[in-house]
Please model this.
Amino acid sequence: MASISAAANLEDVPSVDLMTELLRRMKCSTKPDKRLILIGPPGSGKGTQSPIIKDDYCLCHLATGDMLRAAVSAKTPLGIKAKEAMDKGELVSDDLVVGIIDEAMKKPSCQKGFILDGFPRTVVQAEKLDEMLKNQGAKVDKVLNFAIDDAILEERITGRWIHPSSGRTYHTKFAPPKTPGVDDVTGEPLIQRKDDTAAVLKSRLEAFHKQTEPVIGYYSQKGIVANLQAEKPPKEVTVEVQKALSS
Model:
């Protein structure tokens, strides 16, 4: 039934969109398969690079938080289990998250591989992910480590200010407003996101160093980690990423 309803829906898709998608898929068919993990502390630039990598290599972007929310709203069997855990205020189990990734990987958009962002955060999660991939006859090809000094991150993140109604962002050092604390266009006050304060960043960095840095060590032993100098400007980091993925 699903294929019939999908076919009916395709009739309503404009020809330009259909042709664009067909051309994209043809171009993608020549690309090598890639299964990538992005690891780095908050503010290290993963969010800037992942859409570029996704488009360059025709991969799907698997952000575990988004996938959990999607599974819960779609009421998939795993989504129902995840919701039960969340409603009790418990953490969703590693096995459930790996199961949701396993499900997502079967989508046509993930045919050439995936970018995993936000998972694995612990060595146990990395082991469970490897086991699931092995069962599928696959493995992680490359782990991109967005290496950056904590002090640089603090400057990057705690300097961010936002104009709430428009979403315009400023930075006290890199892109300051004309008048400190006010939006250039409306003159309204700027705010700082709750997550962008030094105290929140400190606790997130502590969690990253304690839990996630060992994951880099785990994958380093397999010889698949590429260390990126994430303090560089985004365009230079993109070049580093392309070099790492072409080797």
Observations:
- The first helix runs from residue 2 to 10.
